[in-house]
Amino acid sequence: MLKVPVHQVAGHPASEGQLGPLVDESGCFYKPLQNNERGNTEVAFYMSFSSNPRVPKHIQRFFPKFYGTRLVEASDGSGLHPHLVLEDVISNYVKPSIMDVKIGSRTWYAEASEDYIQKCFEKDKKSSSVSLGFRISGLQVYRSPESGYWKPEKKQIQKFGADDVSLVLRRFVSSYQPTESDRDPDCAFASSIYGGSSGILAQLRELKSWFEDQTILQFYSCSILMFYDKESLLNGGDPRGAVKLVDFAHVVESKGSIDHNFLGGLCSLIKFISEALATVNECTIEACSTD
Amino acid sequence: MLKVPVHQVAGHPASEGQLGPLVDESGCFYKPLQNNERGNTEVAFYMSFSSNPRVPKHIQRFFPKFYGTRLVEASDGSGLHPHLVLEDVISNYVKPSIMDVKIGSRTWYAEASEDYIQKCFEKDKKSSSVSLGFRISGLQVYRSPESGYWKPEKKQIQKFGADDVSLVLRRFVSSYQPTESDRDPDCAFASSIYGGSSGILAQLRELKSWFEDQTILQFYSCSILMFYDKESLLNGGDPRGAVKLVDFAHVVESKGSIDHNFLGGLCSLIKFISEALATVNECTIEACSTD
Asked: Which family does it belong to (chains A, B) (predicted)?
C-alpha cells in the first residue's frame, strides 16, 4: 500500500491532487519520473552513481539507496506511471526535524536553454542562493506533543536572508519554549546534533573533502537534507542526526573541474552551522567560568 | 622617475597612450585611480584592509603593501592624476614567469547595475569562469635568453577551456624545449614552484583556510597573481614562488556569509595545480620503480 509521505518539506506534494512522491511501509520512497530530460537525467544519475567504483563507500552513504524504477499507480489518479524506487531516508524517524537546503549560488548550468537559465538566474538572485551560496527550500522543526511541528510557509522561507538562516539553523536544534520569544533560541541540542565526531557538521565536512577532489559530476540544483529525531533525543536515545543528498534532475558530467559551485555553497553552510555551534560552546565556557 | 612596467600581464597597459600603471626604481607600483565608484572602492579597500585587526598578519602578506595615494603625472599625458601607491610585488624578479587568474565563477555582485551584471554575466559564460570557477586573465612564461617570454594574446587566453588551463599550468613550471611540442611540457620545476611547504600550493591552501572562515569582505573580480623567477631557479637560487591578491575595485562588504564565490574558484584552482604536481610525482615514482 502506497501513501503520501507525512514528512515532505520541499518539492511538489502529492496531496494536492498532483503527481508527487509516495512511500510504502517497507521503507521505500517512490519518486515519480518527470516525462522529460529531467526524469532521464535523474534515472541515469542513480543507475550510474550507485555502482560507480570511483565513488568511495563512505560517500555513497550520503545518497539514498536506489532500488530501480517501477510502474506504480500515480498519486494524481492518472494511472500507472514510472517511479524511481529509493530508500525512504526518514522512514524510521518518529518526530523528525528536517531541513532541505538547495546548495550552490547558481542552480543553472551553461548548457541549459536560455529560458531556463534566465528563470533560475532570477530565482537565485531573489533568494539567498546568490548571496549565501545556498537557500533553504523547506523545513519542519518538531516542537512538542502539544505544539507539533513548526513548518513555515514556502513564501516565508523564500525571503530568508543571512540573519533568518542563522536564526533558523539555531532554532532547528533548540528546545521549544512556548512562553519565550523564538528570536533567541537556546540551541540546547546543538552539541548533540551538529557537534561531535559523527554529528551533522562532521558529516558535512566529510562531504566537503570529497567535493574538493571529485571531478566526476556537477550537482546543480541539488539539495542537502539534514534531519534528526527529536523524540528519540528527548528520550535519551540516539537522535541519528543525518545528512543526505537528494534531487539529481540537473546533475551533469564535469568538464574537468571540481564542482566549485556546490563546494562554495557547502562551505558557506558549514560556516553558518559552525557559528551556531560556537555560540553554544561560548555559553558553556561562560557558564563554567561563572560557576 | 616613473616608467611603464615591463612585466604587466593583464589590465590596460599604459604603453598604448592610455592611462595605465607606472613603477619607480624604489619598488613602488602606481595604479591610476579610476574616476568613478571603482576608484573609490579600491582606495577604501586598501585604507581599511591594511589596518584591519581582524585580518591576521600571515594573510596580510598575500596583499601588496599600501603606501597611500599620490598625484603623479599620468601615463597618457593628461597631467596630474591620483594614483594608488602600492608595493611593486615583482620589482626584484629578473625573469619573472607570471600568471594572473581572476577568481570566482561570477564577477558581478547583486547590488551592481543591471547593465553591469549583464555584461559580466556574458563574459563569465564565454570564458572559463562559469565552468571552472576562475579564468586566466594574462600570463607570461620565461623560456630562455634566446626565446624570451611566451606571452599569448588576450584573445587566445580568453578562449581557454579546462584542457588549456591544465596545459598552461604545467607549461608555467616546465623547462623550455624548443625542439619538442609544447603540448607535453615536462613540469621540471613543478616540485620547486608548486610543491613544498612554502610553495605556491601551500600558499594557496593557507589563503583557502582564511576564506573558509572570513565574513568580512567579498572579493568580486579580484585576481590571484602567481609568479616566480626562473633565472634565479636555473642558477640554483630561490625562485621565490609567490601568490598575491590584486584588483579590489569590486570588493564589497560581506552580508554575513563567507565569500563562497571566491572560495569555490580558489578550490578549483588548487585542484588544477595539485593535478599538475601529481603528474610529476607519478613520473618520479615510476622512474624510481624502474631504476
From this structure: Belongs to the inositol phosphokinase (IPK) family.
